[in-house]
Amino acid sequence: MSVKQLRVGIIGADTKSSWAGASHVPAIQSQPGLLLAAVATRWEESAKAAAEAFGAERWYADPYALIRDETIDVVTIAVKVPAHKELVLAALQAGKAVYSESPLGATVAETEEMAAAVGSSHTAIGLQGRHSPAVRRAAELVAAGKIGRLLSARVNATTFGYGPQSPSNYDYFNKAASGASFLTITTGHVLDVIEAVLGNIVEVDARTELLWPEIEIVDTGATSVREIPDHVDLIAKTASGAPVSVQVLANVPAEDANFTFEVRGSEGWLKITGNHLAGVQVGDLTLSASVVFDPPNAPVASGVGPTAADFWAGAAINVGEVYASLARDIAADTYDTPGFDHAAHNSRLVAAVERAAQTGERQRNLD
Predict the structure, then answer these.
(1) Is the per-residue pLDDT at 2 higher than 80?
(2) Residue 312 in domain
(3) I need a labelling partner for 58 at 20 to 30 A (CA). Which of 218, 282, 290, 364 fits?
(4) Distance between CA atoms of 55 and 36, rounded to whole angstroms?
(5) How many other CB atoms are there within 10 angstroms of residue 244's CB atom?
(6) Strands 6-11 and 74-77
(7) Where are the beta strands (DSSP E) in 102-196?
(8) Percentage, residues of the chain above pLDDT 70
(9) What's the CA angle centered on 130, arms 124 and 131, to 5 degrees?
């Protein structure tokens, strides 16, 4: 029996913004069941250029026209966070399946509003690190008790951004109103990978720092003010009972990029490692363990898109897994892919980390 090819439209597929081209485009093109049917930006010139570069059938200078296109099955939202809400709600109202980058909303309230509007639509949130084949296999080993009773876990994570300098197009990440920050993006992804393996975090105690409150804008020479923390240390307790210590370090050079997630049990250990400069959610991850395990499944996508720099090598790997999961759900009318309810949970978790740091008090009952 033939399976219907899903037609995907990407809002925010600009050739000058490398993420969509590096991750979403090759993730879609690697799967025969998906077709990049349309791209949209807010300018005719860039929309035409994106369609040509990415091989999309159609282009739109009006994102809402893409949403109204009756031939589109899945709408991907890959624009700045403050623009998510109106686009997401319009796509849900049009009955589309929606894949949105994370964070879903600029605030917890915005995120919860979008989650409440989902209805019967299929959704996916761009917390793609949990979809990594290595992370999924690690979660299976823990759930099966292969390393015994969980005793402790430790996470060290890094990212390249949020240092004393920034190009002007990245200064957006330094402003609280953007909803896209070191905490909501970098830390949010790290915490989600922890939860994928060990279960939901139920208690958290945290300390944050603002190490570089003033940033030099390198392409203009101006000085900008960073409004959000750029460092976090935290201790959490998970639903599995395992305590976890976490440090997320910003402004790390390429040679020092590192993600290490080590879990100790009464009968062994496992470790997930990676070294992508942009963080755990980007690129491939490796699983090792003291116990015998089947290797993680091969990813459905690899490589980079036609306009991406080498920096984003491997960015399509985990994004491809999200699309594969969403496609299975649509075909079977199931809802296994973490979607907007999960996005709301992640948003509340990050908010709890902020509260813990601000009040000095451990946060419980996070949902």
Answers:
(1) no
(2) no
(3) 282
(4) 7
(5) 24
(6) parallel
(7) 123-126, 150-158, 165-166
(8) 97
(9) 70
Inside any domain, residue 330: no
In the structure, what pLDDT confidence band is assigned to residue 366 with cuts at 50, 70 and 90? confident
Residue 287 main-chain phi, psi, to 5 deg? -110, 130
* Nearby residues of 180 by Cβ (< 8 Å), 6 or more positions away: 80, 81, 103, 106, 172, 173
> Has residue 144 been placed in a domain?
yes
CB atoms inside a 10 Å sphere around CB 82? 15
Choose among 302, 156, 312, 322: nearest CA to 234: 156
Looking at the structure, tell me whether residues 15 and 75 fall in a common domain: yes
Position 119 scores a pLDDT of 97
Instruction: Please classify residue 365 by burial: count the beta carbons closer than 10 Å to its beta carbon, then call 0-12 exposed, 13-18 middle and 19+ buried.
Output: exposed
Whole domain around residue 286: which residue ranges? 133-295
Q: How far is CA 83 from CA 11, 151, 175, in A?
A: 11, 42, 15
Can you give the pLDDT at residue 310?
74
Q: Considering the domain boundaries, does residue 367 fall inside one? A: no
pLDDT tens digit sequence for 296-318? 999 999 866 655 557 888 899 99
> For residue 218, how far is the Cα from the chain centroid?
27
**174 & 281 share domain:** yes
- Do 138 and 267 lie in one domain? The reply is yes
pLDDT of res. 17 = 72
Q: H or E segment at 53? A: helix 44-54
Among candidates 261, 268, 257, 225, which has minimal Cα distance to 246?
Answer: 261
Q: Which residue has the tokens 């994370």?
A: 102
Instruction: CATH number of the domain at 243, please.
Output: 3.30.360.10
Give the mean model confidence (pLDDT) for residues 10-27: 90
Per the CB < 8 A criterion, the answer to whether 198 and 145 are in contact is no
Strand partners, 234: 206, 246
Helices (H) and strands (E) in the chain, counts: 10, 17
- pLDDT-derived band at 355, boundaries 50, 70, 90: very high
State whether 70 and 14 are in the same domain: yes
Number of domains in the chain: 2
Q: Whole-model pTM?
A: 0.96
